[in-house]
UniProtKB/TrEMBL annotation:
One of its GO terms (molecular function) is metal ion binding. InterPro entries: Mrp-like_CS, Mrp/NBP35_ATP-bd, NUBP2/Cfd1_eukaryotes, P-loop_NTPase, YlxH/NBP35. GO terms for cellular component: axoneme; centriole; cytosol; nucleus. The lineage of its organism: Eukaryota, Metazoa, Ecdysozoa, Arthropoda, Hexapoda. Binds 4 [4Fe-4S] clusters per heterotetramer. Contains two stable clusters in the N-termini of NUBP1 and two labile, bridging clusters between subunits of the NUBP1-NUBP2 heterotetramer. It comes from Papilio xuthus. The keyword Disulfide bond does not apply. Heterotetramer of 2 NUBP1 and 2 NUBP2 chains. Interacts with KIFC1. Interacts with NUBP1. This is Cytosolic Fe-S cluster assembly factor NUBP2 homolog. Component of the cytosolic iron-sulfur (Fe/S) protein assembly (CIA) machinery. Required for maturation of extramitochondrial Fe-S proteins. The NUBP1-NUBP2 heterotetramer forms a Fe-S scaffold complex, mediating the de novo assembly of an Fe-S cluster and its transfer to target apoproteins. Negatively regulates cilium formation and structure. Its cofactor is [4Fe-4S] cluster. GO terms for biological process: iron-sulfur cluster assembly. Its main location: cytoplasm.
Length: 262
């Protein structure tokens, strides 16, 4: 089912709570706004937040002749979404599964979803290097058009955990596109000044040490936070924000990677 996908982008982090789902959804929305056809796969089985962020919680998936049909955000079907959240009766339902059942579900997501032709498939992953990651890597490691974006926050405790994720990618043969630093200071919605409420420079420093490309800093922006649950793209609603600039620059890098066939 992935042979018609030009590029697979894994959004990874060794740390929970760094905002991978926000980065994944806004990246997918930015790609859509730039004219690409996009799929967004949420494999965070125990914490599927993508349906909520995109305001798709009441939608259902169904089985078609060629496999599961994703939920589409728009009538033009330029952004398709798949998540276990669509299979739960309520957002309060807990997924209490052992490893083998999780593995089987992720394999189904990767093999049985009828995405049609896609420019990009963005995969939002849970934190760490657990069963879910191993299953994803085993199914994607033979796909040359697969690469990872590593998400961190500036603090040292996050950097140390994310460093393990970089090691994991290198051991499993997944190419790393670069590192993005999320929650990089608080951006005042009134004066636009950014204050480093944690620390600063952690993501850039990690990129330099790991010899990886640094993809930019995303601040904590209350205006972007309000877009969660509405399925709206920051680049469209807040075109002059720092978040939109970083996302547009990232999409330019991804577009170039498709053109260069890497």
């Amino acid at each position: 089912m992935l042979e018609n996908v030009k590029s697979v982008i894994l959004v990874l982090s060794g740390k929970g709570g760094v905002g991978k789902s926000t980065v994944s959804t806004q990246l997918a929305l930015t790609l859509k706004e730039r004219g690409f056809k996009v799929g967004l796969l949420d494999v965070d089985l125990c914490g599927p937040s993508v349906p909520h962020i995109l305001n798709l919680e009441n939608e259902n998936i169904h089985q078609g002749t060629d496999g599961w049909v994703p939920v589409y955000l728009d009538k033009e079907q330029r952004l398709g979404v798949m998540s276990i959240g669509f299979l739960l009766k309520s957002r309060n339902d807990a997924v209490v599964w052992r490893g083998p059942k999780k593995t089987a579900m992720i394999k189904q997501f990767l093999e049985d979803v009828y995405w049609q032709d896609l420019d990009f498939l963005v995969i939002d992953t849970p934190p760490g290097t657990s069963d879910e990651h191993i299953t994803v890597m085993e199914n994607l490691r033979q796909i040359p058009q697969c690469s990872a974006i590593i998400v961190t926050t500036p603090q040292e405790v996050a950097i140390e955990d994310v460093r393990k994720e970089i090691t994991f990618c290198r051991k499993t043969g997944i190419s790393i596109l670069g590192i993005i630093e999320n929650m990089s200071g608080y951006q005042c919605p009134t004066c636009n000044e950014c204050t480093n409420i944690f620390s600063s420079g952690g993501g850039k420093s990690l990129a330099e040490i790991s010899k990886l490309q640094f993809l930019g800093c995303l601040p904590i922006d209350a205006r972007v936070g309000k877009l969660a649950g509405q399925g709206l793209a920051a680049v469209k609603e807040l075109p002059d924000s720092t978040t939109s600039k970083v996302l547009n620059d990232l999409v330019t890098v991804l577009a170039e990677s498709i053109q260069n066939g890497s």
